Amino acid sequence: MQERETLIVPIFDDVVPIADVWPVDARWPIFRAEQLLTRFRANFPDLHYDIFWNTRLMNAQAFIGPLGRCVRLHGGLARHRSIGIEGLAFALAHETGHHVGGPPYHPSYLSLISSEERANEWAAKCGLPLLFGEKVGSRYALRGLRQLARLSEFYSIKFPIV
Ligand SMILES: [Zn+2]
Fold it and tell me: Taking 70 as the threshold, does the pLDDT of residue 162 lie above it?
């Protein structure tokens, strides 16, 4: 029953200026995102990963929809010029961690969604090393989190949430 609820766990919620993202039809950003999703899908076949490309919403989400547990990557994050593969990999691992990280759980939802802290911890200690190996995984964890934190700071100052 609870699996039918729709849950959304955003990391950011900003629409970024058009100058800050690669164009919708630029090939390598979509190629990079698809490559990452292929790797996540292969390792977590019970989760559904998709991309909402033609948007400048800077976000990734973990939610439970009609298909079950889903992770969605938005164009404003995937196409952002300041985000490297490390930041994208971290964001996807973080959202995956909301689904598979286990306790402690997010206090705001009825279904079992791991807390923000647990999702980050799972991404850094379990998800990224599993997906990319210990060495690359720990580098992605460090640099990826930094990239995301920098963007988060930048936009929260430039575009205060009202
Ligand atoms: Zn989260």
Answer: no
